[in-house]
Structure formats: structure tokens, C-alpha cells
Amino acid sequence: MNFFFQQLLNALLLGSIYALISVGYTMVYGVLSMINFAHGDIFMVSSYIAFFFSAFLLRFAPHLFPILTFAATILVAMILSSLLAVIIERLAYKPLRTAPRVSAVITALGVGMFLETITLALIGPEPHQIAPLIPFRIYNLGGVSFSSNHIMVFAVSFICMFILDLIIRRTMVGKAMRAISFDKTIVPMMGVPVDTIISATFALGAAVAAVGGTMYGMVYSLDPYMGILIGWWAFIAAVVGGIGNVRGAMIGGLILGVVQVFVAAYMASTYRDFIAFAMLLLLLVFRPTGILGRPKIKKV
Amino acid sequence: MGNRQWLLFPILLVLFALTFLIPHYGLLNDYIQLILIYVGINIIMAVSLNLINGYMGEFSLGHAGFMLIGAYVSSILTVWVFPHTWGPTMTSLVLFPIAVIAGGLAAALAGLIVAFPSFKTRGDYLALVTLAFNMICVSVVQNIEAIGGGRGFMGMDKLTTMSWVFLWALIAAWAIRNFIYSKFGRGALSIREDETVSDLVSVNTKTVKILAFVISAFFAGVGGALFAHVLQFITPKTFVIQKNIDFLVMVYMGGIGSIGGSILGAATYTILLELLREALQLLGTIPPFTLIPSLEIWRWVVAPLLLVLLMIFQPKGIMGLREFGLFVPNRDRFGARLWLKKRKSANANSPD
Amino acid sequence: MPILQIKSLTHYFGGLRAIYDFNLDLEPGELIGVIGPNGAGKTTIFNLITGVYRPTKGSIISDSMDLVGKESNWIIAHGIARTFQNIRLFKELSVLDNVRIACYSQLHYSSLDALLCSSRFQREEERILDETMNLLLLFGLDCLAEEKSKNLPYGSQKRLELVRALATHPKLLLLDEPATGMNPSEISQLMELIQWMRRKFDLTIILIEHQMRVVMGVCERIKVLDFGETIAEGTPWEIQHNPRVLEAYLGEEVVE
Predict the structure, then answer these.
(1) Shortest CB distance from B128 goes to which of A101, A104, A280?
(2) ipTM for the predicted complex
(3) Contacts with C, B 159-218, CB within 8 Å
(4) pLDDT tens per residue across span B11-63
(5) How many domains does chain B have?
(6) CATH code for the domain defined by A2-286
(7) Is the separation of the CB atoms in B301 and A118 below 8 Å?
(8) What is the secondary structure of A56-68 as a DSSP string?
(9) In terms of residue numbers, what domain contains B255?
């Protein structure tokens, strides 16, 4: 039983990080009807940014309170990742807004691969890990052990998701985003600067993913190809939750974390991928709109 | 209007003869021969992918999965199932083509399965289905220890020759061309243009999709079989999603409406990457580039960059939707004009 | 023997009622019109007949064959063709190919025949090429056969859509607002064209139209829809003097 709770905690940790990444996919799809296949790689880059910046801070400002180092690292990762995402959007995606969708998706794949290989070429394939910016401690509660990592991820993710949800539901930007995802043609006619909102969407998604990237780099490790696998899981999570639905993406992330960890715990870990993708396939075929998504009616 | 299609036959015959003479007399060095074989295999992959992504406007990102199936099925046959006592001629003339066709058929079966989701899903969703399919193929093979799992499968003889590749590339291009200029191919085009209307003008979109996926997958499987028997070693990791990017570049570079374009795209891309590799290797010997370790990785930076630039500036590819006249059957190229001419002369002869 | 029998046809889009209790008995050779304000559900009827949507309730029977639940291409292949409100040609394809695509059900060869370029395949393709060109000739589009359909002037595009519909050898033709975007002389030509097509190809026609001249001029019977319900049915004269119809169109009683 303890084993079960242990795995559950790990599952929720992983799931929270997936959730942070999957909202990025879902927001961009809602606004542009495009799957940003490069998002997983932006997550990867954010992880590296966090790694280098934290190493820099630890070296040149070792006396800062750990919580400040942590906060600064996350902040810098968020800002730079947002910047990267917006640059990619403006350079590679914007010119293709009127092109057939195929082009946009292929471009996204290309951008993603480009990020992977350039990271590989510049930094090398060896995995790294971000130093524990928050002092690492292990706790035990009723036979189940968890660490400060668990607390950090749960707390930070929760805060992040809460703020994101607020932004989407209460602010003008968030409302504009949702409006655009409902009807792309009317919104610009109402004076909404669509281009700005779209860039804001990318920036927001990348920022949240960067939070995930920083924490992932602390709890696990980072390498140039992590974006592929993690990105895919997060993406499956977005589809599970109903692509275009932010809350769905959060739930999807948690579900996927649970699936991943429990499959690895109770079955051979090599089946992990297979089950996740089989799930995706079945979902796409039988319920493409996901758990919380809205079905679309075609008009003739 | 000149029609030089009759020239095609003797030219092909000469080329085919060359595929025997070159290796036999060592007219080109081994490395170039290998490149030509890869060009041929990539032609098969590009032309078959173009059927789905180009002509039918669907979104298959799982082509490498079909290749994997063809590679493994054919390799298992030649290494474990087929007798090894038949001698080299019999093996290469009888057993090898059987293995290749078997690989193609196995992939075609998978194509049939992938076709069904395509009935209800389009665009991004179909991309995901095919991507998921690709990854499932990879992870299934990774889990089957009996065929090597993640470590890979080996032991294949080098049965792939320039002649076989040439022959198969020819068959692929010819069969797919015939398909394109038939009611099924036109149906595929109509699906690309407007799928709802396609159904409303009597096109059986289900049949067309099934045929397109099956034929495309078959040749992808053939490509995989040929690939396995030149590399002589295959692992699941060879066929992951990244491999699809190569094929996508070839198809989109060449032009989505053109078989000739796919051939061009495949040849250009393969040769370009090799040249780039050579150039980078050369560059690596010149200071200060000697300081950069493994300069060749940059080759893989160029490929996706090329793809992105292509998509932004030339999304329809070099040939766009046009086709080389050579590949178009006379009926489609001149049919209307000839008909009009006939009518004019008929009117001239019997005014009423 | 009615060519089309629709009984109690009702269709909801989610909670929105698009069509309610629509009935029709159509005899071969008839030319009837369906009119009504925008959003009245007229195109929905066409979509239901041709299998784009599956009706929530009701039956559609053609020549004693039940159409409900059948694939659109099956329905088209069995003699019902349609045109579209906003022209939906295959824009990037040539005029010839636009029509040839519609010949799918008329071409009798297998995929194997196609792949191997068999003699049967070649014969069938020659036959269809000839038939298609002849059809284009009838509508004055034969010289434009190789032109991309999107390059054609508006009027020619409308005619091309008609040719494409006729290529499926239909018995019943559904015309969705064919007079859109036409000036008065073009409308007169259209009216003649409709009558001519009906005779030449032995067609039964259902016409959706806003241009009253066309409807009153060619239709024998008219059904009037408003908010999905049939509010009137009758001859052109009867409809023109029906107060409910006038109210639906003008929103108030017209004092004569």
C-alpha cells in the first residue's frame, strides 16, 4: 500500500510538470489551430537556460538565499523562453498563417528538430542536472517518503496553474485568446490586435513550460533530446484533456503522469511508451475531442 | 506538339544495363555506388509518400513506420526463414524479391489499418494518428526481444544491388503514376481540394483512401526491405519520427503535385546531404574548425533548417503542382486538345 | 412511382432545430422550388438528402431505396446530384478534371486495372474523356477544358458546376441558389437553361432560390420554409398571394 502511495506521489510530480508543458500546446492550438511540435523543444531549451543561469548564479552569487536563486532562475528561464517562442512565432509561423496547415505543422517539426540538433551541436549530448536550488531534504509520513522536490513541484505548479487560469479567465488578454479560439474572423474586426494576442499566447505557453523545465532539470536531468519524449507525453496529455481546453490540459497532464509511473511500476518500463501511444491512438480514433473538448460540426 | 515519351523506353533500358555494368567493371567507386543506391531507395520513399501527403493532401507522418515493417519482415525472412543453401544467384533472383515483396505486403497491411482512422479525421489529427502509429511500431519492435529489441537485428546479406533498386524505383514510379491518372488518383486530388464535395460528386472517398494508404505503405515497405539489405543492420531507432522529416523535405522540395518532383527532391536531398557531410569533414581539417568536435552534427542542423525555409518561401516545392510532361499520360496531356482538333476537322468536313 | 419521398423529416443541430416535419412527394419530371428567408433550413434539406448529415428523425426514400444512413457517394452514384450555394469547384484542378472526377461512379474498372494500365482501363478512360468533352461542349466550356477552374469567369464557373453535377448521370438534380450573383439577362438565360436541361437530360429538379423571377417562372410547385417549418405549399400564384408567406418575408401584413 505504501508502494502505491509512493508511486502516486511520483506520478503526481511528473504529472504536474506534464501539465505545465501541455497547457502551452493547448493554448497555441486554441488560438492558431496549429500543433506547435516545437513546444517540447522550447521546454528543453528552457531547461538548459535554467541550468546555465543557475550555475552562473551559484558561482558568482553564492551567498544569495536559495529561494532567491530559485526564483531568479525560474524568472530568467521564463523570460528567455518566452522571447524564444515569440521569435519563432514571428519568423517561422506567422508567414505561414495563410498557408495550408500541412506547411505549418511541418515547419514546427523542423523548428523543433533544429533546436534539438543545435543544442546537441553546441553543448553536446551528455546529460546535465541543475543543482538543487532548494535544499534537498527527505521527509517521511506514515511510511511514505517524499522529498522537498515533491513539495516544490506541487506548490509551484499549483500556483502557476492557478495564476494561468486567472489570466485566461479574468484578464483581457485571456479573454481575447479565448475569443480568437472561438472565431478567428470576427475578433480582429472588433479591434483586438490579433497578432499581439497570438504572440502573447506563445509567450505565455513558453513561460509556463519554462517553470516546468526548471523544475524538471532539478528533479531529473536534461539532455538535448528530452524535449521529444517529454514533449510528446505533454502533447498526448493536451489531447486527452481536449485540445484547446486549458483546464483539460492540466487534468490530462496529471492523468498521463499517473499512466507513465504506474505502467513503469507494475509492468516492464518498455511498455510505457507503447501504452501511452496506444492510448493516444485510441483516443484520436474514438474521441478525438478529448475529455473536455468540444466537438465541431462541419458546415456545407 | 512533340511527344518524346517513346524516348523514355530506350533510355531506361540503357540505365538498367548500366546498373549491371557499373558494379561489375567498377566504373564508379564504391562510395558513389552506395550513394546511388540510397538515392534510389529515397526515390521510392518520396514517391510513395507524395501519394498521401502530396496528391491526397492528407497528413501522414508515419511513413518511417511502414519502412520499419518492411525492413524487419524482409530481414527476418532472409535471415531466419529462407534457406541459405540456394546459392547466390537463386537467392538474389528469387528469394530476395520474395522477401522484398513480403516486406511490402506486411507494410501494406499496416497501411490498411492506418487508412481507417483517416475516414473520420483530417489534418492535424491524422498527423497525430500516423505519428502515434509510427511510435507504436518502434516501441513494439523495441519490446520484442526475439528480434533483437532495442539492440537491433542483423545478419542480412548485402542483397540490395543498384539493379534491384533501379527496378523497384521504376515499378514504384510507374504504378503510382498509373494510379494518379486514373479515377482513383483524381479522387485523391479531389479529396485534397475539397473532401466533402468529393463525396458529393460520387467519389468513394473510403475506397480511394484505403487504396492510397495501401499502395503508399507497400512501396515504403519495399524501400525498407531494400534499405535493410544494404545497411545489413537495423534498429527501431532508425525509424523514429526524425526519419520522416527527411522524407517530408524530399517530397515538399520536389513539389507536391509531381512524381518527377519527388524523384528530383529525393535525389537532390540525398546528394546534398552527402556533399554537406563531405564538406563538413573537409572543413574539420582546416583550422580553426579543427577545434569544433564532431562538425558533422551540423549536417542535422541544416536539414530541418532547410525544411523550415522551404515551407516559408516555397511551400509548393520546386515543381509546385505541375508535372514533367514526360510523366503525364498522353490522354491527360493532349486528350482535350486532340478532341477539339478532331471536332474542328469533323465540322469542316460536314457543315450542318 | 415517386422519385423522392420525404416523410416527417426533422433535424436538430445540437439544440437548434433546423428542419421540422418536412414532407415531400416528388414525381419524375417535376420541377419544384423551395424558398424561404435565410436560415430557414433549405440547404439543410439538400444536405440531408445527399447524406451530409443523418436526419434526427424522418425518412428519405428514392425509387424505393432508403437513403438515410447511406454514404454520400452512394447516394450520388444512385442518381441524385447537387450544386452549391457558394460555388465549390475543385479550384486548382482543370475544367476537364473537375468533370472527370465526378465520373468516378461511371468508370468501371478496378484498382488493379488502373495500376497496370490495362486495356479495359484505357478503353474506359477514353470513353469518359469523350463523354466529358461532349458534355462540356453542350455548355460551351469545351475550349476551356485545360484551364484551371479558378481562372474561369463567375458565370462559367456556375455552368461548370452544373456540368459536374450532370456528369454523374443523375435522375434528380438539386440546385442550390443557381442565380446568385447574376444580372437580369443572365437570369433569363438561366431560366431557359434550367428548362432545357430538364428536357435534354430527363431530370427532376428541386430548386432553392431567392430570385423570385426564377422560382415563379420555372417552378410548377413551391414549398415555403420559415425557421425550419413548412408554412405554405402550392403553385406560384397561390404562394404569391399567401399572407403567411408575405409575413415571413416582409415581417408584416401587406394591405392589398
Answers:
(1) A280
(2) 0.90
(3) 175, 178-179, 182-187, 189-190, 193-194, 196-206, 211, 215
(4) 888 888 888 888 888 888 888 899 999 999 999 999 999 999 888 988 888 99
(5) 1
(6) 1.10.3470
(7) yes
(8) HHHHH-TTS-HHH
(9) 5-339
